[in-house]
Amino acid sequence: MKRHVFIVKALWDKEAKVFYSESDIDGLYIEAKNLKEFEEIMMDLAPDLILANHFSKRDNSSASLADMIPAISLQVPQMAIA
């Protein structure tokens, strides 16, 4: 089993003035006023959603711990970096 890499994008909604998520993690939806809050929510919710929605019971019982630890890549808009 190879290591899974999940992508979470923080996108800015200028009308609502919030960051919202676009992700390949099933069930993950985030809305936050700033990137710090966004990242905190992501790190709180994403690991549990990944285990619940992306690994089968068979994977959980047969995979090594190293294979089960996913990488989560947060991509933020350029305007947030400046």
Could you characterize the architecture of this molecule?
The chain is of the alpha+beta class. Helix content is 41%, strand content 27%. The radius of gyration is 14 Å and the shape is elongated. The relative contact order is 0.27. The model has no long low-confidence stretch (mean pLDDT 86).
Q: In total, how many beta strands?
A: 4
Largest sheet: 4 strands, mixed
How would you classify the helix and strand content by structural class? alpha+beta
Radius of gyration: 14 Å
**Distance between termini?**
38 Å
Helix percent reads: 40-55%
Q: Taking all residues together, what is the mean pLDDT?
A: 86
> How would you write the strand order of the largest sheet?
3-2-1-4
Write a concise synopsis of the structure shown.
With 82 residues, the protein is of the alpha+beta class. The protein contains four helices and four strands; from the N terminus they run E-E-E-H-H-H-E-H.
Descriptive tags:
single chain, 82 residues, alpha+beta, four-stranded mixed β-sheet, 4 strands, elongated
SSE order and pairing:
Layout: E1 5-13, E2 18-23, E3 31-32, H1 35-54, H2 57-62, H3 65-68, E4 71-75, H4 78-81
Parallel strand pairs: 1-4
Antiparallel strand pairs: 1-2, 2-3
